[in-house]
Amino acid sequence: TGLYLSSQGNSSSFLSSQIFYEDFEDQDISGSQTTASIVTGGRDGTGYALEGDNSQDGQVWWQTTRDSLPTDISSISFWHYAVQQGSTNIPQLMRIGSNGSYFAMDLTSTNKQYYIANGSNEISKWYVDGSEISINTTTYVSTTLNAWHHHYFEFTTSPTELRWFGYNLNIGATYRGTGKLDELRMFNVNLTS
Q1: What is the DSSP string of the chain?
Q2: pLDDT recorded at residue 15
Q3: Which of 7, 39, 87, 99 has CB 3.0 to 4.6 Å from 51, enough for a Cys bridge?
Q4: Distance CA 131, CA 1 (A)
Q5: What is the C-alpha to C-alpha distance for residues 98 and 120, in angstroms, rounded to an integer?
Q6: pLDDT at 6
């Protein structure tokens, strides 16, 4: 079986190494940029989630170790609700710093896939919906839209900044982050499946 984290079921095995948790239920985020919207319709169907916005630039959440990002992250886990909106066909979902490895979607033409661009080799492991993905410099995974998907990443070194839904504030319609983010967990160890 694969690695799959949820707020449901037996979570005691990973809680001791969990150093950050955000489910957006308090409708508040902190970071160096906090302009992304918190909306109803979280993964549980009734709560809240952070939502990307393809209609305007600058709707992001950036965390640094100077504000809400822990300093000793080895791995992260989160849920993403995948959608296609307007002319956004390569939405940026998470980037390590302003120019590091990143996680995005490829929705060009008939493509429906997640991908990581790992030229900086900052991502050492990736699981999607419980299955480990063999990663290279650029790795693609087919997916379905209008559904929640679980992602787990391990890092080669602890990131000092994570940029959610956009790597700069003037990213343009093609790259604006879309969908929803929920149940973000950060750990100070790599988890086992």
Answers
A1: ------SSS--HHHHTTEEEEE--TTS---SSEE-SEEEE--TTSSSEEEE--TTSTT--EEEETTTTS-S---EEEEEEEE--BTTB-S-EEEEETTTS-EEEEE-STT--EEEEE-TT--EEEEEETTEEE---SEEEEE--SSEEEEEEEEESS--SEEEES-SSTT--TTT---SEEEEEEEESS----
A2: 77
A3: 39
A4: 8
A5: 12
A6: 44
Task: Take residue 57 and report the two structure tokens written for it.
Answer: 């630039």
Task: Provide CB contacts within 8 A for 60, sequence distance 6+.
Answer: 33, 35, 36, 163, 164, 165, 166, 169, 177
- Nearest-CA neighbor of 60 among 24, 33, 42? 33
Whole-number pLDDT of residue 86: 85
What gap in Å lies between CA 97 and CA 11, rounded to an integer?
Answer: 30
Q: Flag residues of the chain having pLDDT under 70.
A: 1-14, 193
Q: Give the predicted TM-score (pTM) of the model.
A: 0.92
